[in-house]
Specification:
CATH superfamily: NAD(P)-binding Rossmann-like Domain
Number of domains: 1
Helix content: 40-55%
Shape: globular
């Protein structure tokens, strides 16, 4: 049975870059996201570069679709690389009374779908020679984030889950890696209504291509956590040296649109 790479959120941004990297290695690809048109266009761009490509559209906010996705993807394929890249967020204060559908989808995609796919992938990989899982977390996972509270909480979950499972898998034929980028130039900020937040005034976001390459290399090496960029590393380390109230206050300022 041939090896395959399953990439979620593959229609654009980091997901599309992961697909291009995998294609350049001649890998067989299973691409999933909500937009069938975007996935099909990407598959056409990668035709002749990658091995075989399968497009499986799914809304990962719907667990039944996640379950169907895994059943279809793993039916006759050995998935030896899983990239849990799909992610959602929604900017705004938690107590505003607005945005519950978005919060629910964020929890579903960022946590439930990721957890389910990991849960299915690990025994699948171990039974067939091993594999690697790359979870796209964020520097947001290292501290609470006022004005983006649910997103930060989901990424803290991803980071904690990845580290725990990686320890469980120590010495086995399967590894789990958490990629923790900072601001990255993708459509994420528009979708999350984050244009204008203080974070984006600190400097130009990293390119999706560069972040994806760093994450892919870390995954191939079996690293547990990979934070991208010097400033992001300082941001991630801050909670170890400053009181949580201070780091939470600062994070809130950076996630506010009112910061000059």
């Amino acid at each position: 049975m041939e090896n395959w790479t399953l990439i979620t959120g593959a229609s654009e941004g980091l997901g599309a870059e992961f697909a291009r990297i995998a294609a350049a290695e001649g890998r067989n690809l299973i691409l999933t996201a909500r937009s069938k048109d975007k996935l099909t266009a990407l598959a056409e761009d990668l035709h002749g570069i990658a091995g075989e490509i399968r497009v499986l559209p799914a809304d990962l906010g719907d667990l039944s679709q996640v379950e169907s996705l895994w059943q279809e993807a793993s039916r006759d394929c050995h998935i030896d690389i899983l990239v849990n890249n799909a992610g959602l967020a929604g900017h705004g204060t938690f107590g505003s009374g607005k945005g519950w559908p978005r919060d629910l989808s964020t929890i579903g995609v960022n946590m439930t779908a990721l957890t389910y796919l990991m849960k299915m992938a690990i025994p699948h990989m171990q039974a067939q020679g091993g594999g690697r899982i790359l979870n796209v977390a964020s520097t947001a996972g290292f501290m609470p984030g006022p004005n983006l509270s649910v997103y930060h909480a989901t990424k803290a979950y991803v980071l904690s889950l990845t580290e725990a499972v990686a320890e469980e898998l120590r010495g086995s034929n399967t590894s789990v890696t958490a990629l923790c980028p900072g601001a990255t130039e993708t459509a994420f900020f528009d979708a999350a209504d984050m244009r204008g937040v203080g974070l984006l005034k600190l400097g130009r976001p990293a390119s999706a291509e560069s972040v994806a390459r760093v994450g892919w290399q870390a995954m191939k090496k079996g690293r547990r956590i990979r934070v991208t960029g010097a400033m992001n590393k300082m941001f991630a380390a801050a909670p170890r040296f400053a009181p949580r109230a201070v780091t939470t206050f600062i994070a809130g300022k950076f996630m506010s649109k009112g910061r000059g």
